[in-house]
Structures are given as structure tokens and as C-alpha cells.
Write a structure and sequence with these properties.
By secondary structure, the chain is α+β, with helices and mostly antiparallel strands. The chain has a domain of 30 residues. The protein has two helices and two strands. A two-stranded antiparallel sheet has the order 1-2.
Length: 82
């Protein structure tokens, strides 16, 4: 599906109704734009809780304070380890 829209002088776009319907978008929903080369892809932002379990957490980082995880990750990246 390709549908044109025109940007306003304020940089705003109206998402055409067929696109809103196809993505199930409603007033107040969040969306993301992902730039891929010279294109931008509009996607519905998933509900945060629906992402639970979608990423495997390494055993060494489970049940560890978030600040400790961030600190360890930064130190490993700085030293070239991953």
C-alpha cells in the first residue's frame, strides 16, 4: 500500500485513514519512525508489557541491579570485550 501525504509548514503529517486502519492506530497511540536509507518506516509502538520475554537475558545479568549491568556493559565495551 502506498498513500501520499503532505507535510505542513510545522513539519506535521496526517496519517491517512487507510494507514491508521491497517496499523490499528487510534488517537493517542505512539508510533515510531525508523529511517532506512532514503525511506522512513512508520510502525505502531508495541505495548511495553507485551515485550516481556522477547529478549533473552544472559544468566550473569539476571537479578542484578540495573546500574551494575550498565556499568559492566560500558566497561566491557570500552575494553573491546563483548
Amino acid at each position: 500500500m502506498e498513500i501520499a501525504a503532505r507535510m505542513s509548514t510545522k513539519g506535521q503529517l496526517t496519517v491517512p485513514k487507510p494507514v491508521r486502519d491497517a496499523l490499528g492506530l487510534n488517537e493517542g497511540d505512539d508510533v515510531i519512525f525508523r529511517v532506512e536509507g532514503d525511506r522512513a518506516v512508520l510502525a505502531r509502538t508495541p505495548e511495553f508489557l507485551s515485550l516481556a520475554g522477547s529478549i533473552t537475558v544472559p544468566a550473569a545479568k539476571r537479578n542484578v541491579a540495573w546500574d551494575d549491568v550498565i556499568g559492566t556493559t560500558r566497561r566491557e565495551r570500552a575494553s573491546g570485550r563483548r
